[in-house]
Amino acid sequence: MIGQLNHVAIAVSDIKKASNFYHFNLGADISELHELPEHGVQTVFVDLQNTKIELITPLGENSPIKAFLEKNPEGGIHHVCYEVLDINKATKKLSSEGYRILGDGQPKIGAHGKPVIFLHPKDCFGCLIELEEK
Question: Total structural domains in the chain?
């Protein structure tokens, strides 16, 4: 079902500082800052030859990233994102097998303008997994 690794997301408390590190210290190309109010985050993508790193920071008081950073003040890996060909088919299959889809269980538009879902980390060996339609 899953295809390529799309990105690894790293939660950061200072997205500008983190972006500058990847750009100026490691020489990576980075995207502009994007706000995703529906997901409660601000994002910057670090482009690599074979994948991307998504830097995420809270947007608003109800951001799910806020609680993560309270537990991990220095930041850390938040989730991994894999591509799937058909997000609705993947959602239906996983739900029918008892895997919990976070939120209302329906795909939402993610940072790349494509539908995404998140699988509960307790169902995925402690890892928050995002699936994004290719």
Answer: 1
Distance between CA 43 and CA 56 in Å, rounded?
5
Domain extent for 41? 2-133
Task: For the chain, give the mean pLDDT.
Answer: 96
H/E/C letters for each residue in 77-88? EEEEEEEECCHH
Catalytic residues: 130
Pair of tokens at residue 130: 């995002």
Q: How many CB atoms lie within 10 A of CB 13?
A: 15
pTM: 0.94
| Residue whose entry in the numeric block shows the structure tokens 């220095």 | 74
CATH number at residue 49: 3.10.180.10
- Rg, Å, the chain Cα set: 15
- pLDDT tens, residue by residue, 15-36: 999 999 999 999 999 999 999 9
**How confident is the model at residue 124, as a pLDDT?**
97
**% helix / strand / coil in the chain, to the nearest 5?**
25, 40, 40
